[in-house]
Amino acid sequence: MEVTKLFSVKDQTVLVTGGSRGIGKMISEAFVRNGAKVYISSRDKKACDQTAAELTAFGPGQCIAIPSDLGTDAGIDHLVTSLKERESKLDVLINNSGAVWGGGFEAHTEKAWHKIMDLNVKAPFFLIKRLLEIMDRNSRIINIGSVAGCLPQPDIGTFAYDTSKAAIHHLTRVLALELAPRGITVNAIAPGFVPTKMSKQISTATGLGMDELAHGVPLQRAGRDFDMAGAAIYYASPAGAWVTGTILTVDGGQIGAASAGFSGASKL
């Protein structure tokens, strides 16, 4: 197969939750630029609408906003209903919406714990469950995890977030087994340090500047938009058709180095 076809996502219908900014926006832009129809969702209607207009201008694909708060049952219901009214088939579901809560052990109230778990774990599970009706044997599910779900992150205090990302990694493996008979693949991307609004909170928590955090990565740089986009397109294209139940760490070598015992590699 030609390389252009091997990694093609042209004419796919894609849903990216949390697609209005950060990693979700990076991934959404790549799909639009490569000819897909991309639906994005976030609870911020203004940001969602602005991003949809911005990405559609890139073409040749298009981006459509469906603002929804996926931290609530009503928000999940709104997104599912709205998408099904527009589409009879979904090729790719990318569960990217997420929240973080820092401040250390004492700051993790029950309310904070439930907020993180509802958005980071509960919402992806029930979106998958309810959208299976419009997915077929060629559909792909991509969950966005984190290196924080692979190794403990010292001095940050993001207990609920780290736990939720470990949960989404294992949920990915469980659902891959469950949905394999249907021909639906389920994989995850575990990003490392990528400059986003969320990563700025890590900078604040550690007292390290963004450049200092990037120097803690073995490849000596932060993640870029094409790093995130490339991983997602691989999973969604024919190239990733025989891959399921995997957690792809896209982190500049952070997890590999930390697992080998190199100091300083797991400071993100």
Describe the structure.
By secondary structure, the chain is an alpha/beta fold. The chain has a single domain, classed as NAD(P)-binding Rossmann-like Domain (Rossmann fold), CATH 3.40.50. The chain has helices at residues 3-6, 22-33, 45-58, 73-86, 110-131, 159-179, 197-206, 210-215, 225-236, 254-259, and strands at residues 13-17, 37-41, 62-65, 92-95, 140-144, 185-191, 247-250. Strands 3-2-1-4-5-6-7 form a 7-stranded parallel beta sheet, with helices on both faces. The longest helix is centred in the middle third of the chain and has 22 residues, at 110-131. The chain is globular and about 45 Å long. It starts with a helix and ends in a 9-residue tail after the last helix. 46% of the residues are buried. The model has no long low-confidence stretch (mean pLDDT 90). InterPro entries: NAD(P)-bd_dom_sf, SDR_fam, Sec_Metab_Biosynth_SDR. Belongs to the short-chain dehydrogenases/reductases (SDR) family. This is Glycoside hydrolase.
When the domains are counted, the total is 1
Report the sheet-strand fraction: 5-15%
Give the overall pLDDT as a whole number: 90
Distance between the termini: 39 Å
Sheet with the most strands: spatial strand order: 3-2-1-4-5-6-7
Which structural class best describes the helix and strand composition?
A: alpha/beta
CATH superfamily, by name, is NAD(P)-binding Rossmann-like Domain
Count of DSSP E strands? 7
Overall outline: globular
Q: Please give the count of helices.
A: 10
Residue runs with pLDDT of under 50 for 5 or more positions: none
CATH topology, anyone? Rossmann fold
Task: Report the CATH C-level class.
Answer: Alpha Beta
Q: SSE order in H/E notation?
A: HEHEHEHEHEHEHHHEH
CATH architecture: 3-Layer(aba) Sandwich
| Largest sheet geometry | 7 strands, parallel
